[in-house]
Amino acid sequence: MTESKIEREGSSTSGYTCFSRACATREKDERFRGPDYLAELFMPPIPNILLNIPILRKLCMGKLFPTGIHEYVLARTRAFDEAFVNALDDGISQIVVLGAGMDTRALRFQDRNKGTMIFELDIHATQHYKREVLERKKVVLPPELVFVPIDFNKQRLADVLIEAGYQQGQKTLFLWEGVTMYLEAEAVDGTLAFIRTGVAEGSVVVFDYVRASVLRYENTLYGEDDIRGTVARAEEGWIYGIEDGAIEDFLAERGFKLLSHYLPSDLEAAYLTADDGTRFGRINETHCILIAGL
Ligand SMILES: C[S@@+](CC[C@H](N)C(=O)[O-])C[C@H]1O[C@@H](n2cnc3c(N)ncnc32)[C@H](O)[C@@H]1O
After folding, report:
1. How far apart are CA 272 and CA 111, in angstroms?
2. Which CATH number fits domain 66-293: 3.20.20.140, 1.10.3470.10, 3.40.50.150, 3.40.50.2000?
3. Residue 219 has what DSSP assignment?
4. What is the Cα 57 distance to its own chain's centre?
5. Residues lining ligand 1, judged by CB closer than 6 Å?
6. Which atom of ligand 1 has the smallest separation from the CA of 6?
7. How far is the centre of ligand 1, averaged over its atoms, from the C-alpha of 237 (Å)?
8. Are strands 172-176 and 145-149 parallel, antiparallel or unpaired?
9. 230 C-alpha to center of ligand 1: Å?
10. How far is the CA of 99 from the centre of ligand 1 (A)?
11. Cα separation of 206 and 223, whole Å?
12. Which atom of ligand 1 is nearest to the CA of 11?
């Protein structure tokens, strides 16, 4: 069987989102500055130059990011950071980051970690690039961080995670950021089934998803046309989505309860609006974020 591009070379979409987070740290208005000050570690030489020359950075952001996606990534980073920090502060046993890409939370929040194990899962090639950069830049890794290579479409999460030291029956937070849209339905359902059966009550999963109408090319949402082109060019097509209005049933059928559901307008209100009402910008409407519990 031939290898897909992501298996051979790693994910380019994780590079885009990482570049977006790096650019967000250069935002002049500190109310809307991105928190991921380590994202720039992963920039290859040319993006690193672009990042640090304001006029080039602006040009590049305009060319590279589909309408409303930089805004979405900023809001999503803040939302997922919040979930991560809350879990650390609660002293949760484990955090599992599914499709971690260049996620830096284990590093950025290590001072708040009182012994929570953090498992970062990703396809081998993406994870290899990340680990190689961290090693080359002599970043000291926290002892709680465990890297776990996996192909969600080909391997069983339970087998791989348990082998890596994950403890079943413990209270766990699962972060699944920017991943479900790339997976087959069986992989999404299999992951949710594993989470439901393997963890303690009070465990939580946070994930974002693409709205199913986008997969049908209905083109009714702000920024939809623009982002579909970018995803197609990255050769990491979106194949999974959830219908609008179906989220509670979707979760109930899989044994979860809905804790929070953020539509793009909710994300703008919660994460991109300053105290005086100033809004950073409009979010691309193709994605939503959900927090589900057991
Ligand atoms: C858009 S990136 C998101 C990365 C990171 N969570 C973020 O928000 O920046 C999608 C991630 O899913 C991973 N991924 C995609 N398909 C995968 C698969 N079949 N198995 C494992 N990881 C996969 C990619 O390697 C990549 O890191």
Report:
1. 26
2. 3.40.50.150
3. -
4. 23
5. 6, 11, 13-14, 17-18, 99-103, 122-123, 126, 150-153, 177-179, 182
6. 25
7. 12
8. unpaired
9. 16
10. 4
11. 23
12. 25
Whether the Cβ atoms of residue 209 and residue 180 lie closer than 8 Å to each other: yes
The ranges assigned to domains in the chain are: 66-293
Q: Tell me how far the alpha carbon of residue 122 lies from the centroid of ligand 1, in angstroms.
A: 6
- Quick check: helix, strand or coil at residue 233? helix
Using alpha carbons, select from 237, 121, 260 the residue that is nearest to residue 177: 121
Atom of ligand 1 nearest to the CA of 125: 25
**Residue 160 CA to ligand 1 centre (angstroms):** 16
CA–centroid distance, residue 162 to ligand 1 (Å)? 20
- Write out the chain's pLDDT in tens, 294 residues: 566 665 666 677 788 999 999 999 999 999 999 999 999 999 999 999 999 999 999 999 999 999 999 999 999 999 999 999 999 999 999 999 999 999 999 999 999 999 999 999 999 999 999 999 999 999 999 999 999 999 988 899 999 999 999 999 999 999 999 999 999 999 999 999 999 998 888 999 999 999 999 999 899 999 999 988 777 776 668 999 999 999 999 999 999 999 999 999 999 999 999 999 999 999 999 999 999 999
Whether pTM exceeds 0.85: yes
From 122, 156, 284, 287, give the residue whose CB has the most ligand 1 atoms within 8 Å, as the site to mutate.
122
